[in-house]
Amino acid sequence: MLVLSRRAGSSILVGHDITVRVELVSGDDVCLSVSGPGEVKVERLDQAEVAAEMKSRDRAWEPAVMHVLSRRPRPGLRINDEVVLTVQAVSNESVRIGIEAPPHVLIYREEVYQQMQEANRLAVQASAEEDLSGLAGLFPGATE
How many CB atoms lie within 10 A of CB 90? Predict the structure, then answer.
């Protein structure tokens, strides 16, 4: 299990296209939003309990984009049937989120992912700007 500490307003990238954003940390409660391209399947692991409780109150409940989790003994969220997020600890204004995912699903702190993308962009730009005229001597008879 990977455990990351996040503050309100920070995000975790699941793979390259799903963003889990910490919207609010308050007491023992944490509000997370999950977004991605097209349909991202998100379900609470205690979804049946929540639905039953809402039904007992004569209210319909349908999962939304925003999910409120608690450090209290409750399961977390499952994303696309393969990634499980759980709240491990809440302190001050930060939350420790446990992430269980198969090896092929990469997990990034958003700021680290953005730094990697920028470094890759600069590397490609630098290699495109290099003078490759010295290579002409390696291929006799080649024209410029």
Answer: 19
If you search the block for the tokens 């049937």, which residue do you land on? 81
Mean pLDDT, the chain cut into blocks of 10 residues (144 residues total): 90 90 83 82 73 68 56 73 89 88 93 90 72 61 58
Residue where the block lists tokens 């290579």: 135
DSSP 50: H
- Two tokens, residue 17: 């296209």
Contact between residue 73 and residue 38 where contact means Cβ atoms under 8 Å apart: no
The C-alpha atoms of residue 15 and residue 104 are separated, in whole angstroms, by 8
- Two tokens, residue 111: 């700021």
pTM of the model: 0.71
DSSP designation for 45: T
